[in-house]
């Protein structure tokens, strides 16, 4: 299951350890076993994701540079997010209510990948 969890993380230069900690805190709020894998690009913000693997919490997959096809669901989610936030517009500067609205909209959208069910329906079954 692919469920969208949005948060305005403060990704700033020199804070990769704090960034990973913030991601971990968000994922810890979820019921155990719901998220089994993390697929990452090779950006600096994700350079310490290996810490998740060390704790046996998640399998971490790293996509190759310039291989967006290795992150297909991520690219589709990005396209959906861009319906609400145009490229170059920072989500961290947006009201929390709008971020939550977009997250809810995406999680309640029927997807062919899920047999035309929503991510929220599958999440509740999990």
TrEMBL record:
Extent of the signal sequence: none
Record domain Integrase catalytic: where: 1-126
Superkingdom per UniProt: Bacteria
Gene3D superfamilies on file: Ribonuclease H-like superfamily/Ribonuclease H
InterPro entries per UniProt: Integrase_cat-core, RNaseH-like_sf, RNaseH_sf, Transposase-Integrase, Transposase_IS30-like
Protein's name according to its UniProt entry: IS30 family transposase
Organism field: Anaerostipes hominis (ex Lee et al. 2021)
